[in-house]
Amino acid sequence: MDTLHTAHLLLVEDDVELATWIEEYLSARGFNVTTCHRGDEAVTLIKNLNPDCVLLDGMLPGMDGFEVCKTVRPDFINPIIMITARDEEIDEILGLEMGADDYITKPVRARVLLTRIKGLLRQQERFNPASELPLSPPAASMHLLQFNGLSINELTRSVHLDGESIKLSSNEFDVLWFLASRAGEVVQRDDLVSHFRGFEYDGFDRSIDLRISRIRKKLNDSPQEPFRIKTIWGKGYLFAKDVW
């Protein structure tokens, strides 16, 4: 069964005509779509419904989409796609810094939106702890990375630093696991973009960089001179082994 097409999407869009069109398009492709038109209402729905993916307009009454994203992101781990009429680069960066996983501008192209949704949901679906059978201790240890005070458990999708639980979004966890499982190696930015975004790095996409920036903040890495997840200029990133 293709669980992508049984996913529950929350669409937050104040343009009623556009919202109706998007809802009908996605519903016709098997998605379960809930729609609301206000930012403050969206915060409540996200907390109560825990949708598989949120499609979030930037300009909303009650609370704008950027503030909605910032408000819910500490506790909401599923993907958020910002959809906005504002196409300035600073708005894209702001949305991603607030915790969005992707960003598209209006006018919305149906196939692009569908592709972005499917891509993020496939990342979510790659591992589903509830569907796994219990593993033997040796097998379970293959899903645990330990670096002194940092523990990353792929089975439970949990991260602990010095005994404290660190709340990461699903996509932040995926990037952290990808880097940590290659600890001590330089991971090319091209490989990260290709793996998580599904296309070759064009020199402009900032989504992975900003995702790593959010991970650094949560893991108490220095934003000015990161020493835990290092930037290797012109190449990519290196997850340090012995600094945790």
Task: Explain the overall architecture.
- With 244 residues, this protein is of the alpha/beta class.
- Helices cover 38% and strands 20% of the residues.
- It has helices spanning 16-27, 39-49, 65-72, 89-97, 110-125, 137-141, 170-180, 189-197, 207-218; strands spanning 8-12, 32-36, 53-57, 80-84, 102-105, 144-147, 150-153, 158-161, 164-166, 186-188, 229-232, 236-239.
- The chain starts with 7 loop residues before the first strand and ends in a 5-residue tail after the last strand.
- Residues 127-135 have low confidence and may be disordered.
TL;DR?
This protein has nine helices and twelve strands.
Primary descriptors:
single chain, 244 residues, alpha/beta, 4-stranded antiparallel sheet
Query: Strand order within the widest sheet?
Result: 2-1-3-4-5
What proportion of the residues is helical, as a percent range? Answer: 25-40%
Order of helices and strands: EHEHEHEHEHHEEEEHEHHEE
**How can the largest sheet be summarized?**
5 strands, parallel
Which blocks of ≥5 consecutive residues have pLDDT under 50? 127-135
Portion in strands: 15-25%
